[in-house]
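Quick one: co-fold with calcium ion.
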Amino acid sequence: SKQATIPVIFDHDGGIDDILSLLLTLTMEQVDLKGVCITPADCYADDALVSSLKLLTLAERTEVPVAVGELVGPNPFPPEWRAQPRICHTMPAMLRINESREAVSALPAHLWLKQYLQDTPDKVTMVLTGPATNLAWVLQHYPALAEKLQTVIWMGGAITVKGNVAMHDHNGSAEWNAYWDPKATQALITSRAPLLMVPLDATNALPVNKAFLQTLAHTDTALSDLAGQLWANTVTAIPAYEFTYFLWDILATSLLGLTEEAYSVSEDCLQVSVTTPNAGQTYRCSSGNPVRWVSQVNPQIVIDYVINQFTGDHK
Ligand code: AGV
Ligand code: CA
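Sure, here it is.
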């Protein structure tokens, strides 16, 4: 059994794979979860809060603080996408959990995060699976707090591949988390935080397909069933890129447990557009702040890791 030695703050935006990523984090013995922040982006915050509390209650981690975000970016997610994750706390296995609210923070997420970073003597790893709005606020108002960050793993951006934003005033070059709050994306990328980006360049290799779900379903436990049921709600019959669900946030979260043979990291100077028609586009440039990003993955190693966490006796 591994010791819980990696302090982690998990900031998510309530999508189905965000909820699955929180569940994955809770299977990792080496992770010492210090707090959960919610960004009200690809979700409605109430749904994301209830689902998060239910998973923390399931994992007997009701002491972990949960802080709901109140800062919003200028480019909202489609309401159908925001409404989709209500299913996460409405399925029977989740309804049966009587969630504890004892550790819901009275502070909004950006202020809770600022306070945590000010108070902690130790460096903390952050995993962000939605827009970087809360952390960007902290880094802009308290830049010295970047020293409290061990690594910031952020699912977002599209560097050498096309994006996944399909909006009337957009040219399709941006990834959604980067687009929701382009100025937060810019603030994160130009900050002193030790960033490791997980862009679409890496996650495109990891579609949620039938083979993956079939392998997960091979093992019949309460945990693998919960994960499989959650993923079943992301399946669509439409084979277009914009409708395909990927292991976006799951890859970012898995980096906490994967060994380095599973992926490669590149380092480039990046810039972020904050104006139409390419707001949120993250592109390489010849000068500026070098940023580390996951440029390649070994899909089989990642899939084996995720399946093992949800099915194996990894304790
Ligand atoms: O762009 C990927 C990000 C990830 O953090 N999110 C979903 C993941 O949580 C936005 C997104 C892109 N395409 C989507 C998304 C889709 N088809 N459905 C819901 N959200
Ligand atoms: Ca997300």
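If it helps, Strands lie at 6-12, 31-38, 66-68, 124-128, 149-155, 195-198, 263-272, 282-285, 290-297.
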